[in-house]
User: Which sequence fits this backbone?
């Protein structure tokens, strides 16, 4: 089954404790992206990747890191989480042509206390 | 700048028809998507328009006017399960890559 798999689904952590949210897709997609979704603000792009070893900042990259060492994986790293990073996070992938839809993972609800 | 506007909330009755509007301003326009998102779940793809006109897909149709920067999603024969948020998103080509920009979503409540 074609899918984007994110883990974990729920995460509660404390300020400053490094964490990684994993994302994997099995559709051989070149384009992968991370979004955060907050009430009233919609989906905002954090980082995206057009291919292996090619990543770029989205609209809200501060406090986040990503890597794309393999085509299927695109982890999101929070080196020192802060409460303002409490949010619902989605990983998404597409073939990258611009006319192909994004396929989303099931989301990770992160709470930073 | 880039901007997408859609109503925050709409209410309709089961069996009725509802139209959700979306206006956008962007450069490098490469198409417009509609997604459905149930509360706490991932967005799922509904439709894509790149040319002017109406695309029909079962109970759902989507319309695009590029000259007006306007789209709408039409839902017919509403069912309770259609209660969800509907996200308008624009694909744009910029700096050698494609970017997807999302509106804040329209929360649709379907009443019995």
Assistant:
């Amino acid at each position: 089954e074609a899918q984007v798999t994110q883990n974990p689904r729920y995460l509660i952590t404390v300020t400053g404790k490094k964490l990684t949210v994993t994302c994997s897709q099995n559709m051989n997609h070149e384009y992968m992206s991370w979004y955060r979704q907050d009430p009233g603000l919609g989906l905002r792009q954090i980082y995206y990747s057009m291919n292996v070893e090619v990543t770029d900042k989205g609209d809200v990259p501060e406090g986040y890191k990503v890597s794309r060492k393999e085509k299927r994986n695109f982890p999101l790293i929070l080196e020192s989480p802060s409460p303002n990073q409490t949010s619902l996070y989605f990983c998404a992938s597409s073939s990258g042509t611009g006319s192909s839809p994004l396929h989303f993972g099931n989301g990770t609800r992160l709470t930073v206390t | 700048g880039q901007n997408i506007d859609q109503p925050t909330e709409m209410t309709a009755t089961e069996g009725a028809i509802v139209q959700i509007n979306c206006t956008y301003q962007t450069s490098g326009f490469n198409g417009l998507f509609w997604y459905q998102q149930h509360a706490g779940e991932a967005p799922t793809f509904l439709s894509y328009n790149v040319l002017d006109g109406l695309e029909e897909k079962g109970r759902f149709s989507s319309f695009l006017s590029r000259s007006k920067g306007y789209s709408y999603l039409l839902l017919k024969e509403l069912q309770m399960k259609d209660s969800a948020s509907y996200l308008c998103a624009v694909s744009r080509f910029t700096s050698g890559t494609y970017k997807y920009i999302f509106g804040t979503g329209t929360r649709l409540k379907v009443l019995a």
